[in-house]
């Protein structure tokens, strides 16, 4: 990997994520614009790694690219909806994407028990997003949860034989790390960062969900046990009520430490399965 590749894969996403985070901390920031930009950034990361898809889509990578491009657009629809409707919309998008990805074997009458993993992912994700307003006492709850899941998923993808998606998730992790860093800097400066808008949570959640559906559907050497631990990390926001009582500067580290309880064993299981 040369310098240009490193800049595209890591430096640019960190810079963009930080920029979005700093803009969101400004009083004049437009939440729609910030969330749409985040969604477009996630789609752009995928396109930079996997290439631009033809129309109509041919392979699963092409289909995922179109699904990711739809997330920021659908986010505008979800913007003014109540939480359970936002969650239902994301569940429908993920389910349609999954059915689109497995359309060929499905129409040929072939079923695979491993499809339970992506279906389970959607089933776990939906109620968590529906509860998002109740699990947002700490501004770090969702950013740290998303970052932890993205980092763990990237390692599982690389060790599971899905190198292209692993690289995508590493770049996504850099984007989310930049965003979380901006919030931490705002905490150092002001004592407490502004709470992220629900649309930002929805857009990041949607992009990550689509990528996890692709991972659990097509990774050739994915450790099922490791993936289930990754999926358990979606429950990290359930600790919001207790961890939000800690000092603000401690909260991101507390959430990260809790995420490691599932993330590190997941990575170790993936290494064992490698």
> Quick check: average pLDDT?
85
User: C-alpha Rg, in Å?
Assistant: 18 Å
The number of distinct β-strands equals 0
How would you spell out the order of helices and strands? HHHHHHHHHHHH
Summarize the amount of helix as a percent range.
over 70%
Assign the structural class, choosing from mainly alpha, mainly beta, alpha/beta, alpha+beta, or little secondary structure: mainly alpha
What is the count of DSSP helices, taking H or I runs of 4+ residues? 12
Strand content: under 5%
Report how far apart the termini are: 23 Å
Spans with pLDDT under 50 lasting ≥5 residues?
Answer: none
What sort of overall outline do the alpha carbons produce when their principal axes are compared? globular
Q: How does the major sheet shape up?
A: none
